[in-house]
């Protein structure tokens, strides 16, 4: 068993002002994505300047934060937030939904593209390889908060989390998700997008791979206590929300290559 590193969730305390690691991870994720996007900007759209890129990053970040928070409220614990609406603003305590943030990014991208003469999937293909940076940083934030831990196990890398009332050795599922949704997904999308791909293919690869990775980790992650398992004693909300991503992603990839072949045949 590995010891859980005792990390204070508060990174900086200046009197009543407290800056939490969870919030800093979001800033790191957004900043890292902005930096990488700036390096790829000329290849994507030579006429855009850094100001235009900053506008895109800002609206996508708003989609992540607002969508992620509202998604958690709607998908995972609506009753509690209706009973105490002020909890919605307490984001430093955790409670962000990737799937809600994903919907927020889709809406923000559509809005931005419609006002800047860019197709929705053109932008999504550009954004998709950047997203794992934020995902990986967010999972480190979950780990520091000692939240979203896994099921009990006797594996040698199991940990006892201070927030676990049972104090059992558990899967560090946040680190699994960091490795898969952050590191592995970034590597896949980075190498896949280095060569020209048909429009929609990179977006489809992101959706399919994320969905598969999330679906797998959910088997060793403890479901939210207020929801539990939704069906068959194993299906979680995370898996239910990931299934459309897997199917939709595979469908986008197939359609992208089929359309490309049809266009090449008609020339």
UniProtKB/TrEMBL annotation:
NCBIfam families, per this entry?
A: lgt
Q: Detail which positions bind a 1,2-diacyl-sn-glycero-3-phospho-(1'-sn-glycerol).
A: 139
Q: Which organism is it from?
A: Pseudomonas benzenivorans
Q: Which GO terms describe its molecular function?
A: phosphatidylglycerol-prolipoprotein diacylglyceryl transferase activity
**PROSITE patterns in the record:** LGT
Places the protein is found = Cell membrane
Pathway(s) served: Protein modification; lipoprotein biosynthesis (diacylglyceryl transfer)
Q: Which family does it belong to?
A: Belongs to the Lgt family.
Q: Recorded E.C. number(s)?
A: 2.5.1.145
Alphabetical keyword list: Cell membrane, Membrane, Transferase, Transmembrane, Transmembrane helix
Q: State the protein's name.
A: Phosphatidylglycerol--prolipoprotein diacylglyceryl transferase
What is the protein's major site of localization? membrane
Q: Where are the transmembrane segments?
A: 19-36, 56-76, 96-113, 120-140, 175-192, 199-217, 229-257
Q: Which topology term describes how it sits in the membrane?
A: Multi-pass membrane protein
InterPro entries for the chain: Lgt (IPR001640)
Q: Briefly state the protein's biological role.
A: Catalyzes the transfer of the diacylglyceryl group from phosphatidylglycerol to the sulfhydryl group of the N-terminal cysteine of a prolipoprotein, the first step in the formation of mature lipoproteins.
């Amino acid at each position: 068993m590995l010891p859980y590193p005792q990390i204070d969730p508060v990174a900086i305390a200046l009197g009543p002002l407290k800056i939490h690691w969870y919030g800093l991870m979001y800033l790191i994720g957004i900043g890292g994505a902005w930096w990488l996007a700036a390096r790829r900007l000329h290849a994507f759209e030579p006429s855009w300047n850094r100001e235009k890129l900053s506008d895109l990053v800002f609206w996508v970040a708003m989609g992540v934060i607002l969508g992620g928070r509202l998604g958690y409220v709607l998908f995972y614990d609506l009753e509690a937030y209706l009973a105490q609406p002020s909890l919605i603003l307490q984001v430093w305590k955790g409670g962000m939904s990737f799937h809600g943030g994903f919907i927020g990014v889709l809406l923000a991208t559509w809005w931005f593209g419609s006002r800047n003469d860019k197709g929705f999937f053109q932008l999504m293909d550009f954004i998709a390889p950047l997203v794992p940076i934020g995902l990986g940083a967010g999972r480190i934030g979950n780990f520091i908060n000692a939240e979203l831990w896994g099921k009990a196990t006797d594996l040698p890398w199991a940990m006892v989390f201070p927030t676990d009332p049972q104090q059992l050795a558990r899967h560090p599922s946040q680190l699994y998700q960091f490795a898969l949704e952050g590191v592995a997904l970034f590597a896949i999308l980075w190498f896949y997008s280095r060569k020209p791909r048909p429009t929609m293919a990179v977006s489809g690869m992101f959706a399919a791979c994320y969905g598969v990775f999330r679906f797998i980790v959910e088997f060793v992650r403890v479901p939210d206590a207020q929801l539990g398992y939704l069906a068959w004693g194993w299906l979680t909300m995370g898996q239910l929300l990931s299934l459309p991503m897997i199917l939709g992603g595979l469908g986008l990839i197939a359609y992208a290559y089929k359309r490309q072949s049809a266009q090449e045949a008609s020339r």
